[in-house]
Design a protein that fits this description.
heterodimer, A: 405 residues, three-stranded antiparallel sheet, 66% helix, B: 23 helices, 37% helix
C-alpha cells in the first residue's frame, strides 16, 4: 500500500477496506465475471473435442490462468487512484510506443503477423495492452488540454498522439485493434467536448483517408496499404455471394450456426456447426456464434444484456466521476467495449466486416482477458476514487480542469 | 439513488455539456445493441428454419446400403446365382471439391478413362447426395488399400461395400440366368426404375431382367454425420436394406448340365460325320404336362462371371467376333430355323382336323411328287411306296405330306396356317425370358405384303407343298417346337412354358408359386391323336423308323420325330424331338444342331442323352447311328 499512499499526496490519508468494498461497483464486477464464466463454458464446449489438444480442458485451463492474472490486475488497478496516471502520461505513452516497436522487432511471427512477445510464462499480445495504455495517455492529454478545446492545433496533436501507436499496430498487421484506437479517439474526443465543426472535419477526413486507402491508392497508384485479404475480409459481408475465398465461408458458417440455434438453441455442447468444425475460430473470434448456436436467441440476448449491464455501469461511472480525467478514462473503456462487442457480434451475424477482434471477456485469449479485467479495474478505480474519502479526508480534484501531477 | 449526487455535482460544474455528451454516447450504445438484437431476431426467429436446413444439409450424408440381390436356385435348391461381397469405388458429388485434380488421379488409380468418370458424374450430379459408382468391383489390393491410405488426396471419393453376382458353375444356364449390370441412362428414365440412381445394378438379361424387381430388393439408408472435412463422425439413422426375393427355377441342374454337354457332343458327332461347319446348337427340355422348362441351353455359351464388375473390352471383343458364333444369342428362344420334318406331326394334325385325310388315307410315294411340270423329291430317292399317315410319320415320307400340302392349297382361306398356328407357331410362347422370337407361318397375306416382285407376291401350290414338310418360308424356334410337340404329348393343351417355379423369401418361405398356365387347346379326336402318337412312337421303335438307330436299346418307350432342315447354302440343320414315356409323357426334348447334317444321326443321340439322364437309365446309346433322314 506504500505506492498508493505515496500517490495520494495526502499525508493524512489512511486506507479503509470497508469504504473500498462499499464503493466497489458490485453489479459491474458480477456482470463481468458472469461474462468470463460464460466464455469459459463456451470455450470448453467449442474445444473439448479438438483432436490436437492434450486434455479436454486445455483451452479452459489457459483461460483460467488469464482469469487469475486478470483478477489480480483488476484489484490492483482499482486500488490505484486513477488521477495518479496523469503524472505517468509520458511514460505510459512512450512505453506503449516502445512496446509496439519491440513487438515489430522481436515479436513472434504467427500466421504472417507479429503480434506477440514471448515471455517465459506466456505470450503477450501487445496490441491488447496497448489499447488501455492509449486510453490512459489520451485521457491525461485531453484532461490537461481541456482549455484548448477550441484549438484545432491541439485537436490535431491529439489525433497524431493516437495515430502513432495505431499505425504501429496496423503494420503488425492488426487492423482490428488499429480500428479500436480510432473508436477510442472518437469517443473520448466526443466526451471531452470536441467542437461539432471539428468533429465534422475529422469525420470527413477519416472518410477521405478510408477512400484513399481502400480505393484510390490501390487502383490509381498500385499502392496497397491494406493487403488484398484484408480488404476482402472487410468488404465480404456487404456481398457474401461474390467471394470465393475463405472469408465468405467463415461468414456463412457463422450465420448458419447462429441462425440454426433458433429460439432456444441446440443445447450446450450439442452445436453441430461448432463440434463438426464447420465454424472456424469457434473459440476465439467466433465464440458468439457458438453461444447463438447452442443457446439460441434466448442465450444470445442474455449475453448481450450482460454486456449492456457492464456498459450501463461504465456509463454511470463516467458520469459520476467528478473529474474530467476520470470521465475520459471510463469513456475510453466504454469505447473499447462498445466497439469490440458490436463489431465482433456484428461480424458473426454478417453485418460487420471480419476484422479479427475478440469478444471482450468471452473469447479465448489470456492477453485480451487480462486487459479487459484490468479495464474493469480502471472503471472501479474511477468510481472508488471519485467517491468520498477512501483514504480519509476530502475528495480530490473537485473541478474539471488541468491537473498538476 | 446514484443519479442524485451526480446531478448535483454536474449542475454547478463548469461543463454541464459532458452529461449531454455521455447521453449521446449512451444512446448510440443502445441503438447499436438494438441493431444486434434485431439482427439476432431476424436470423434466429425469422430465418432459423431455413438455416437449420442448411446446417443439416452440410453435416448429414445419406448413403445407401446395397440390398443383397435374391439368390437363384434350381428346382432342387441348388444355388445357381449367389452374391459375394465386393468393394465399389464411387464419388459423392457434393464432396468433390476439386474435380480437376481428383478425377485424373482417380482415373489413373482405377485405370479408367477420365472421360468415362466425367460422363458418369454428369449423369449423377442431379443428386449430389448420392454416391455415383465409378467402378463396381475393385480389388482390395492394391487399389482400395491405396485409396484408403491416400484418402486425403481423394476428397469426395467413396469406397462402399456392395454385392456382386457370383456363379458357382460359371458357364451354366447362361442364357436363362442372364446377368446384371449398371443401369443404363435410358432405363433411369423409366417408371419401373424410378427409385434407382446412376450406378444401380439391374438385371440385363434372362431371369435377372424379367424378375429384376423381385430380385433387386430395397436398398437401405444410412444417415451419417460428417465433420467439415467430410469425415464421418457417427451414424444418425440406419434403415436396413430389404434383401431381394429368391427365385426357384424349373431347371434341374443335373439335367441342365447333361443337356449342355449333349449339345456339345452333338456338334462333335456332326464333325465326325463330315459336317465340319457345325458350331452351334440348342436344346429345350420341358415337362409336357406343365410347361416347366427342365433344361434349356444354347451353344455356344460363355461365363457369366465376365460381366461382374463390368466386362473387359478384350473379352467382349472376343465374344462378339465372328469366330465367337454369337454366344450372347439364346438360340433356344430366339433362333429361327426351318422346322423340316419335325413339323410333320402338326401338318398331320391340321390335315386330320380339317378332314383333308384320315389316318387310313394312303398315298403312293414313287420318290417324288409332281404338280404339272414341278417336281418335289422325297428324301428317299426310290420312294416309300404306299404309305398311310402313321407310316408316313414313322418313315418321314415327304411325298405323303406334299399331297396334304397340295390339297390344302386347293381349299379356300388360310385353313392350313390356322391349323398350324393353333400349336403356337408364328407367335411367342410367353415364356418368362426376354427377347423371344415369334417365328413365321407364311400365308397368302404375308407373301403379298413382303414379296419383292409380282412373282414373289403370289401364293403358289409350291408354298403349301413346302410348308407341309416344314420348309419354305416357315421359321420356328426350338422352344416353339417343344411347346407344340407338348400339345401332342399332353393331348391338346397349349401351355405357356416357364423357367421360374417359385419366388421365395430369405427364409425359404414361398411368396409366389407359379401355376401351370394354358393359353389354348387343340381339340383332336382321340383316334386322330392316337394315330399321330403311334406314328411318332414307331419312329424310334420300328426298325424302319427314322429314329430307330438312335434309340436302339433304350429301356423306355420314346415317341419322336427326326428332322433335317435345308437352309441353302449351309449344310443341313439336324433336328430331333422326342418325349417319354410315350404312353404317359413326363419329359419332352427338342434339339437342333446347326449345320449338323442329319437329324437321325446327330440330333437324336443328343435327345437320347438327356432322356437317359432324366430316367437315370444310363443306357449310353451307340456313338455311330445309321443315317436314315
Amino acid at each position: 500500500m506504500s505506492v498508493l499512499q505515496k500517490g495520494t499526496d495526502r499525508p493524512s490519508a489512511g486506507f479503509s477496506m470497508g469504504r473500498y468494498l462499499s464503493n466497489i461497483d458490485w453489479i459491474l464486477l458480477v456482470a463481468t465475471l458472469a461474462l468470463v464464466a460464460v466464455g469459459m463454458a463456451m470455450i470448453y464446449s467449442a474445444t473439448h473435442a479438438d483432436r490436437n489438444i492434450s486434455s479436454p480442458t486445455q483451452y479452459v485451463n489457459d483461460q483460467a490462468v488469464g482469469l487469475v492474472a486478470g483478477l489480480f490486475a483488476l484489484v490492483v488497478v482499482s486500488l490505484v487512484d486513477f488521477s495518479w496516471f496523469v503524472g505517468l502520461k509520458r511514460y505510459l505513452y512512450w512505453g506503449n510506443v516502445a512496446l509496439l516497436v519491440l513487438t515489430l522487432l522481436v515479436g513472434a511471427e504467427r500466421m504472417g503477423a507479429r503480434r506477440w512477445i514471448a515471455t517465459p510464462l506466456f505470450d503477450v499480445q501487445t496490441s491488447e495492452l496497448s489499447k488501455l495504455l492509449v486510453v490512459l495517455a489520451l485521457a491525461a492529454l485531453l484532461a490537461e488540454g481541456v482549455e484548448l478545446r477550441g484549438r484545432l492545433r491541439f485537436l490535431l496533436k491529439s489525433v497524431a498522439y493516437v495515430a502513432l501507436p495505431a499505425l504501429l499496430v496496423f503494420v503488425q498487421p492488426d487492423l482490428g485493434t488499429a480500428l479500436v484506437f480510432v473508436a477510442v479517439l472518437g469517443v473520448m474526443l466526443l466526451v471531452w467536448g470536441i467542437r461539432w465543426t471539428h468533429a465534422a472535419l475529422l469525420g470527413g477526413g477519416a472518410l477521405l483517408a478510408a477512400t484513399l486507402v481502400l480505393r484510390v491508392l490501390p487502383q490509381t497508384f498500385g499502392l496497397e496499404l491494406l493487403k488484398p485479404y484484408q480488404i476482402q475480409r472487410l468488404t465480404v459481408f456487404l456481398n457474401p455471394n461474390q467471394d470465393t475465398s475463405g472469408a465468405a465461408y467463415q461468414l456463412s458458417q457463422s450465420k448458419i450456426a447462429v441462425a440454426s440455434g433458433m429460439f432456444s438453441g441446440k443445447g450446450y455442447m450439442d452445436g453441430t456447426q461448432t463440434n463438426l468444425n464447420f465454424l472456424p475460430a469457434h473459440h476465439t473470434d467466433f465464440i458468439f456464434s457458438v453461444i447463438g448456436e447452442e443457446f439460441g436467441f434466448v442465450g444470445s440476448a442474455i449475453l448481450l444484456l450482460l454486456f449492456l449491464a457492464v456498459l450501463w455501469r461504465a456509463f454511470r461511472i463516467a458520469a459520476a466521476s467528478k473529474t474530467l480525467h476520470g470521465t475520459l478514462i471510463a469513456s475510453g473503456v466504454i469505447a473499447i467495449l462498445l466497439f469490440q462487442v458490436f463489431v465482433n457480434v456484428g461480424m458473426t451475424l454478417g453485418i460487420m466486416p471480419i476484422t479479427g477482434i475478440p469478444l471482450p471477456f468471452v473469447s479465448f485469449g489470456s492477453s485480451s482477458l487480462v486487459v479487459f479485467l484490468t479495464a474493469v479495474g480502471l472503471l472501479q478505480s474511477v468510481r472508488v476514487h471519485s467517491r468520498t474519502a477512501l483514504y480519509g479526508g476530502r475528495l480530490r480534484g473537485d473541478q474539471h480542469g488541468p491537473m498538476a501531477a | 439513488m446514484y443519479l442524485e449526487p451526480m446531478r448535483k455535482r454536474r449542475a454547478p460544474g463548469d461543463d454541464p455539456s459532458i452529461a449531454a455528451r455521455l447521453a449521446v454516447l449512451a444512446t448510440a450504445a443502445v441503438i447499436l445493441f438494438a441493431v444486434l438484437l434485431f439482427r439476432l431476431w431476424f436470423l434466429q426467429i425469422l430465418s432459423g428454419d431455413q438455416y437449420s436446413t442448411q446446417a443439416d444439409d452440410q453435416r448429414l450424408r445419406t448413403v445407401s446400403i446395397s440390398a443383397p440381390r435374391g439368390v437363384v436356385y434350381d428346382r432342387d435348391g441348388e444355388p445357381l446365382v449367389v452374391n459375394r461381397a465386393g468393394l465399389s469405388v464411387g464419388i459423392l458429388p457434393m464432396d468433390l471439391r476439386s474435380p480437376e485434380v481428383v478425377i485424373p488421379r482417380l482415373a489413373e488409380v482405377l485405370g479408367v478413362p477420365e472421360d468415362e468418370i466425367r460422363q458418369k458424374l454428369e449423369k449423377g450430379k442431379s443428386d449430389p447426395y448420392r454416391v455415383t459408382v465409378i467402378q463396381a468391383d475393385v480389388p482390395e489390393n492394391p487399389v482400395v488399400s491405396y485409396l484408403k491410405e491416400h484418402g486425403l488426396e481423394f476428397p469426395g471419393v467413396r469406397i462402399e461395400k456392395s454385392y456382386l453376382r457370383s456363379y458357382p458353375r460359371q458357364a451354366f444356364a447362361t442364357h436363362i440366368l442372364g446377368y446384371v449390370g449398371g443401369i443404363s441412362y435410358d432405363d433411369l428414365e423409366k417408371e419401373q426404375f424410378r427409385t434407382l440412381g446412376p450406378g444401380a445394378m439391374v438385371g440385363k438379361d434372362g431371369v435377372e431382367a424379367v424378375y429384376d424387381s423381385k430380385l433387386r430388393g430395397v436398398d437401405g439408408i444410412r444417415t451419417v454425420e460428417v465433420d467439415a472435412a467430410g469425415r464421418p463422425k457417427r451414424i444418425i439413422q440406419e434403415i436396413q436394406p430389404q434383401p431381394g426375393s429368391n427365385l426357384v427355377l424349373t431347371l434341374d441342374n443335373e439335367l441342365q448340365e447333361v443337356a449342355e454337354l449333349a449339345v456339345a457332343e452333338g456338334i462333335e458327332r456332326a464333325h465326325q460325320e463330315g459336317f465340319t461347319d457345325a458350331a452351334a446348337g440348342a436344346i429345350v427340355a420341358l415337362d409336357p404336362r406343365t410347361g416347366e422348362i427342365l433344361a434349356m441351353a444354347s451353344y455356344p455359351d460363355y461365363d457369366l462371371t465376365s460381366w461382374v464388375g463390368g466386362m473387359k473390352t478384350d473379352i467382349y471383343r472376343d465374344l462378339t467376333s465372328p469366330e465367337g458364333n454369337k454366344p450372347f444369342f439364346d438360340r433356344a428362344i430366339k433362333g429361327l430355323y426351318p422346322a423340316a420334318s419335325v413339323f410333320k406331326p402338326f401338318v398331320a394334325a391340321a390335315a386330320l382336323r380339317n378332314d383333308v385325310v384320315d389316318w387310313t388315307t394312303v398315298f403312293n410315294d414313287p420318290g417324288s411328287f409332281k404338280i404339272g411340270a414341278q417336281r418335289w423329291k422325297c428324301w428317299k430317292d426310290d420312294g416309300h411306296g404306299d404309305v398311310n399317315l402313321v407310316e408316313a410319320l414313322m418313315v418321314s415320307c415327304d411325298t405323303y405330306f406334299y399331297n396334304i400340302g397340295s390339297m390344302f392349297y386347293d381349299m379356300e382361306g388360310p385353313i392350313f396356317q390356322d391349323g398350324l398356328e393353333e400349336f403356337g407357331f408364328g407367335r411367342t410362347s410367353g415364356i418368362d425370358l426376354p427377347g423371344e422370337a415369334a417365328g413365321r407361318v407364311p400365308d397368302k397375306d404375308w407373301k403379298r405384303q413382303t414379296g419383292q416382285d409380282e412373282e414373289a407376291r403370289l401364293w403358289k401350290p409350291g408354298d403349301d407343298v413346302n410348308l407341309s414338310i416344314g420348309q419354305g418360308d416357315l421359321l420356328v424356334t426350338p422352344l416353339q417346337l417343344a411347346v407344340a410337340s407338348a400339345v401332342i404329348a399332353n393331348g391338346g393343351d397349349v401351355l405357356v412354358p416357364r423357367v421360374v417355379r417359385q419366388i421365395t423369401d430369405g427364409s425359404g418361405n414361398v411368396i409366389k408359386e407359379f401355376e401351370t398356365e394354358m393359353r389354348g387347346r387343340v381339340e383332336l379326336h382321340p383316334e386322330e391323336l392316337e394315330s399321330i402318337r403311334r406314328g411318332l412312337r414307331l419312329v424310334t421303335s420300328d426298325p424302319n423308323g427314322t429314329g430307330y438307330g438312335a434309340f436302339r436299346g433304350f429301356p423306355i418307350a420314346v415317341a419322336g420325330k427326326t428332322g433335317t432342315a435345308e437352309k441353302k447354302p449351309d449344310d443341313d440343320y439336324a433336328w430331333f424331338m422326342g418325349y417319354a414315356p410315350a404312353s404317359a409323357p413326363e419329359i419332352l426334348v427338342v434339339a437342333i444342331i446347326e449345320k449338323g447334317g442329319h437329324g437321325s444321326s446327330v440330333a437324336a443321340p443328343v435327345v437320347r442323352r438327356v432322356l437317359d439322364q432324366y430316367f437315370n437309365t444310363d443306357s449310353a446309346g451307340p456313338m455311330q447311328v445309321e443315317v436314315t433322314e
